[in-house]
Amino acid sequence: MTALITLNGVTKTLKGQQQPRTILAGVDLTVRSGESVAILGRSGSGKSTLLSLIGLFDRPDGGQYLLGEKDITRLPERKAAALRSAEFGFVFQRFFLLKNLTAVQNVSMALVNGQGWLPRRKRKARALAALDRVGIAHLAKQKPPKLSGGEQQRVAIARALVREPKILLADEPTGALDTETGNLVIEVLRSATDRGCGLILVTHDVDHAAKMGRVMRLNDGLLGPAHEQVHA
Asked: Which residues, given as ranges, of the chain have pLDDT below 50?
């Protein structure tokens, strides 16, 4: 399988009014095409910081970040924004849906920028196909206030998938959902890897983590296997 992203010795120190605090002390991680990886860790361990670095919202203080074979460790923000749009899909605990737009319109919005110019009809067709992939094409005309939490999260996943990203980053995507709905959302995310997408799931839920192909734990700024804590 092709390596999609590779982190070598990535470090990050948070500097604020208090004493500087090392969050990532030399993280190594490789995620390959079609692979799903869960990252566990206690609150404040740096899971979201790591995902922010991978998603190019932030930059590491040290180490190396490769996208494929390209070194993007010190990428300027303008180029980082273009890569975020072209290569990544994002799913968060909050859905960030526009309440006055239908589900299909919310998904279509992801195609307005970063995909070149697409006619409205093609945008809608791709958005409907994405909604179908997550099992809610029948809700395409519904607006978010009419949808359940799980349905809204699946719209958000469809929005992340509609651009056919190489890497899908999910940060606590089931945190606001009940257990049954959360399990369904995890299965939808997991199925995204069937087309070769790489999935990184940050979660505090051990059961959800165990459904991924590989489970890692972030502890004391270092990322390592979580075999002893999690059993699939």
From this structure: 228-232
